[in-house]
Amino acid sequence: MSLFKRLSHEKTMFFEDFDIAQKYSTKGRTVTEADAVLFSTLTGAYNPLFLDEVHASKTPFKSRIVPGLLTVSLCTGLIYQLSVDPFGEGFVALVSARMKWLKAVHHGDTIRSEVIVGDKKPLENHRGLVTLRAKTMNQENQEVGEIEYNIIVQTRS
């Protein structure tokens, strides 16, 4: 058995498996200082709001914040971990992602996402376009961001 098969989820979603208005909830993930520093270093996002506690303490945020794109990346990773596996074997491509930040995420916050299938349209060549809308929440159940993904997914046939 291949490593991929051992690590893959029980259900792989194809276009037919996405039902409009279907909701999914991810597990939570605590964002650490190390996550933010590594992400900033890896991407070159050397913003003092992310890295300099003295500077950040003088801003309306009162302390360092997590880069918004890190929050989006973690949210996407949490969606990958859903047992229904929307980004699994049937997934072809991410066409677009639209993000909106509503509240800062700080080191130590635990985020999770509520995902809903917003729309789906058949395409040519045994494929379809699926819109997933994710609301990212913190440990206080406050919405910190919204992400809309448009993905191309294979059909079963």
Q: How would you characterize the overall build of this protein?
A:
The chain is built from 5 helices and 6 strands, in the order H-E-E-H-H-H-H-E-E-E-E. The chain has 157 residues and is an alpha+beta fold. It has one domain: Hotdog Thioesterase (Thiol Ester Dehydrase, Chain A), CATH 3.10.129. Strands 1, 2, 3, 4, 5 and 6 form a 6-stranded antiparallel β-sheet that branches.
Would you spell out the secondary-structure blueprint of this structure?
Blueprint (H helix, E strand, L loop, with lengths): L2 H5 L15 E3 L3 E2 L2 H11 L4 H4 L1 H5 L10 H13 L10 E11 L8 E14 L3 E11 L5 E12 L3
Helix residue percentage: 10-25%
The CATH topology corresponds to Thiol Ester Dehydrase, Chain A
Q: Roughly how many Å is the radius of gyration?
A: 17 Å
Q: List unreliable stretches of 5+ residues.
A: 1-9
Terminus-to-terminus distance: 25 Å
The CATH superfamily title: Hotdog Thioesterase
Do you know the CATH architecture?
Roll
What do the pLDDT scores average to?
93
The shape is: elongated
How many domains? The number is 1
Number of strands: 6
Using the coordinates above, name the CATH class.
Alpha Beta
Going by helix content, strand content and strand pairing, the class is alpha+beta
Query: Could you describe the largest sheet, including whether it forms a barrel?
Result: 6 strands, antiparallel
If helices are DSSP runs of H or I spanning 4 or more residues, what is the number of helices? 5
**How large a portion of the residues is in β-strands, by DSSP E?**
25-35%
The run of helices and strands is HEEHHHHEEEE
